[in-house]
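Sat 14:20. Reprocessing the chain from the morning session after the first attempt stalled halfway. Input below, unchanged.
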Amino acid sequence: MKAVCKKISDVCKLIFGYGIEIVLFAGGLTFFGYLAAVIIGGDTATEICKWISKSFTPVIIYASTILILFGLLSMYLAGETALTPDKRKAKSEGEK
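Finished this time. Tokens:
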């Protein structure tokens, strides 16, 4: 069972890694969209900004949320405890 969980975890990490990279790149592209709107100006700039905020940004937010769930699932299946304190460290630090 552990081998199956490890394989599923590896696939989830792969999906998470590439997916977050794509979402971060797409989020960075919004900067260039807004920059182009500032340079163009007028009603065209307004339409560009509306399109970015109403069509493009929600897709990025939903995709990143789903990808974060893949990342958490991979941590859970691998048995990683990155978000919890280590009991051995806490004892040694408390004894100092």
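The helical segments are 2-40, 42-78, 87-95.
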